[in-house]
Structure formats: structure tokens, C-alpha cells
Amino acid sequence: PVLVVDFGAQYAQLIARRVREAHIYSEVIPHTATAAEIEAKNPVALVLSGGPASVYAEDAPSLDPAVFELGLPMFGICYGFQTMARALGGEVSQTGNREYGRTDVTVTGGALHAGLPEAHPVWMSHGDAVTAAPAGFEVTATSAGAPVAAFECAERRMAGVQYHPEVLHSPHGQQVLSRFLTEVAGLEPSWTAANIAEQLIESVREQIGEGRAICGLSGGVDSAVAAALVQRAIGDRLTCVFVDHGLLRAGEREQVETDFASAIGAPLITLDDSEVFLGHLADVTDPETKRKIIGREFIRSFERAVAQALELQGQGTGSGAGSAGAAAGADADSAAGADSASAGSSASAGSVDFLVQGTLYPDVVESGGGAGTATIKSHHNVGGLPDDVEFTLVEPLRLLFKDEVRAVGRELGLPESIVGRHPFPGPGLGIRIVGAVDRERLDTLRAADAIVREEMTAAGLDNSVWQCPVVLLADVRSVGVQGDGRTYGHPIVLRPVSSEDAMTADWTRVPYETLALISNRITNEVPDVNRVVLDITSKPPGTIEWE
Ligand code: XMP
């Protein structure tokens, strides 16, 4: 891999994603990694990320000096650029000349900026500046505040830039990063959807061996792609389970039972466990508690599904798997719940050992799985799992970003109606009702949500909006007037966001006409809702979901 050395800035993951967009696999490692640890990962190049600090600060994060002697191609960004300059014998000064935001650089030569306009805008964020490039390095760009805005040394396959090529505000940044990877480092862009799919299928095959697996479908892209990968790896030893926890949106269950099952090619069991989930959620208002309960009950549902899965897998051999699967899904549905447990007594429960999860790289990081990052929310498919899970987790997407998941899905032949879907959280509408969850509130939210989705699609906004959670403030009431009467109803919050990976997001400027239409329809058509409000908070500081 290309290793992105994380100096503690929020940009390391973004850089990793940009490297992958250049079709080269990359991972993030902490700056505390030693040269030996880095070598052990067989890197093909290093990228030093930006950092929050000045290289002069007392606790400035540093890198094992031996790393610079590994002979690896290296690209420094911002703080990483300065670290590199210092380590290689250049000069970094506290010029007192801060540059922040849009800045023009002037290109003076070199391979990185070849073909770009001589003067072009980039995104800067620095106080210190490199004032002399290391010996043997050519200065290839300058700016008003950075006499050395970029340098490179073809012989050592090293280069760096003071600005942030990874952010969208540097319009040519991706090109510069790509040129480093291919022209300076000489790497072959081979991280393509086809190769990713092939590698993931192979590693799933290795992990599961001759074992059996079940995969919970949530109705989202991630679990569908994860299931499809595992299906390609182990065939009819995979059974999909769809838990109707009563927290679904309108039409979701039907869609999973038809489109998803046939696209994935594995038999599907639907469990109608809404009674169970809603029972446990009654009167629970704390978001983390809700998440934990839903995570726990998912696992309990899956455990109940094992017996059914085993029976199905026994039957699946020989006859046409596709049609048998669809029929079995319908059957299982009517026989769901308590019955399934007793049905299991004849089969050897526990011989489905693997549980497939659609966990993504950002989930892993946000649930505290990344080095030194705080737990922000326990996403049910990672941190919310109970301790006594009896399954071994299979997480084929654990290192992927959302756009890669979609690309892999397309590669596996999943239709656009699945891979193009907006993200929807596993805990469903349960974390979109602020307050306790009950059937009536769920019906209210479902009705509002359906209207929002309908109007957003009709307005052609599905591609510009990353997702639009619709939230019911069940514990808030406000006074309204409808007809001649006073109302005292609940507000619905619209949370349209634009994002690339859900790690950061901005609120989407949805056209007023669409908002007006949505507001009118919701207040007219959904009983108990007398106000529609728009969430105009970016992430950070807000998260995308309200809970
Ligand atoms: P937040 O609210 O953390 O959401 O900004 C980031 C993205 O993750 C989705 N999300 C979840 N997905 N299980 C999931 O599978 C979860 O528990 C969960 N919580 C949030 C959210 O919809 C957004 O796309």
C-alpha cells in the first residue's frame, strides 16, 4: 500500500481516499510507527499528512528519522512537507506570514505541476514556511507566503507541497497527487473496482473456508454489497437475513424482499421482529442506549435466524437456488418469530459461524477503531454489538470508503437502484425520533419521510443530496393554527446533507420551491405535525443523524 502517515490532522483519511481515487491502494498509519513497522507493511510509497501543529512546537509530532532512509518514494503535504524539509536538511522558518485559505501558487518547473496553468489557486493553511529546499531538491512552485511552496527530487522520488492538494478547494490537487504517484513514484494504478472485488472475494473465501455464513441486510448499499461479495465467495453457504425491526421506512421491506434478494443471489429469510424491538425500546430516550438495544436485538434476531438458515442451506443444494430462495423468503416470513426457535432444535444450531457485516472504514474510525480517535457514536454494526456475540464477524468492506463500495457493487452487477441508494442507518427510524419510540410516532415519521423522498426524487435532487434524514422531535410541541383551530403538534426536521464519505458534510442548499412543497405536504398530510424546520448545520459540529 501507499501509507499515509497521520500527523493528527483530520485530513489523513481524506488523503488516503484521494490516493485510492488515483487507483492505488492506501492505508493510514500513525506517525508514531517506527521505520521497521513501516517496512513490515511493504509500502510502495509514503505520504506525510498535514498536522495541526508547528514543527517548532514543543510537542510537535515527529517521524522516526530512519524512515527517511528507507529509500521509499515520499510525498509531504503541509506539515508533512515541512517535516520532510527539516529531516532532509532544508530550512523551515517561522516567517510570521500566515497563509490561510485560497492562495495562488506560481509554478516554476518540475513534474508535479506539469501541464497545469503557471498560476493557479490552491488551499493553504500554515504559519511556518519552508525557506530553503533540501540539497538536491528543486523548488517547483512559490506563493506570496511560501517562498518554497513545492519541491521535488526525481532521483530520490520525493516531492512535497505546502498546500493541501486533497481538498476540493485545490482544484488541481487530485492531478498533482496522481502525478506524484505515477510520475514521481512510478506506481502502477491498479486499484480498480474489478481488482478490489477479486481481492475481497478471495480474502472472504480464505476467512470462511468451508464454513457457513449469514448476512443481515439492512436495505442499504453496504450490507447488499457485502452480501454479494460473500455470495460470490462461498455460494449457497450464505443465507441473507432481513430483520424487520419495525424501524423501517415505507416500502423498504418489500424492496429488499424483491430487488435485493434476486440481485445478491442468496436465499433470504425475513424475520418480523418489530414486537420484540419496540418492546425493548419502549420509553428509552437516550440515543446510545437505543443504539445498544437495537444492536443487541439484531444479534438475537440473527441467532434465531440461524436455525432457519441451516434448513434452507440443506434444501438449497441441487434445486435452482434463485427461485428456491425467493420462495423460502416468503415462507420464512409467515413462520417467523417464536416458531423459528423450535424449528431449530432439529438442526445443529451454531454451525453457522460467520456473520457478515457491511462495516466501512469511516464506521471503524468513528467507533474508535482508528488509532487515537474518540468514540463519537457506536454504530450498530461495530461498537453497538453485544459482548456475547457467538458469530465470527466477516467485514469485507472494513477498509473501503462508500464510493469504493458502490464501484464494487456495480462491478458485481448490482443494479443502480441498490448501489445508488442513499445511506440509511442500521438502527433506522429508531434514531430519527428524538424521544421514545412507539408505533404511532413511527407512523408519523414514516409518512413524513415518504413525502420527503418522493419530492426530492421528483425534483431530481437524488444525486446532489448525499442523504436526507427526516427527524421527528417527538418530545417537542409547538403551537400552530390549522383551519380555525389551534394545534399543538410536533416539528419535523429536514436534514439534507452533501458529503463525499459521511465523515464531513455540509447542509445542502435545496431549492426553496422544493422545501416549500415538502413543508406544505407534510403539514397537510401528516397528522400531528404542524411545523417543518430545516437543519443548517455542517458536520462537524453536527453529526448527520440527530442521535
Ligand atoms: P453520523 O450521524 O455519525 O452518520 O454523522 C454518518 C453516516 O453513518 C450513518 N449511520 C449509520 N449507519 N449504522 C449504520 O449502518 C449506524 O448505526 C449508523 N449511524 C449513522 C448515517 O446515516 C450517515 O450516513
Q: Short description, anyone?
A:
GO terms for molecular function: GMP synthase (glutamine-hydrolyzing) activity. The chain is 35% helix and 20% strand.
CATH architecture of the largest domain: 3-Layer(aba) Sandwich
User: What is the CATH C-level name of the largest domain?
Assistant: Alpha Beta
CATH topology of the largest domain: Rossmann fold
Q: What is the multimeric organization of the chains shown?
A: single chain
Question: How many structural domains can be distinguished in the coordinates?
Answer: 3
Distance between the termini: 35 Å
How much of the residues is beta strand, in percent? 15-25%
CATH superfamily of the largest domain: HUPs
Class from secondary-structure proportions: alpha/beta
> From the alpha-carbon coordinates, what is the Rg to the nearest angstrom?
26 Å
Largest sheet: 9 strands, mixed
**Main sheet strand line-up:** 2-1-3-4-11-10-9-6-7
Number of helices: 16
Dominant shape: globular
> What fraction, in percent, of the residue positions are helical?
25-40%
Name the bound molecules.
Answer: xanthosine-5'-monophosphate
Mean pLDDT: 87
- Residue runs with pLDDT of under 50 for 5 or more positions: 315-350, 368-378, 380-384
Attribute tags:
547 residues, Rossmann fold, GMP Synthetase, Chain A, domain 3, 9-stranded mixed beta sheet, 5-stranded parallel beta sheet, 35% helix, globular, binds xanthosine-5'-monophosphate, EC 6.3.5.2, GMPS_ATP_PPase_dom, GMP synthase (glutamine-hydrolyzing) activity
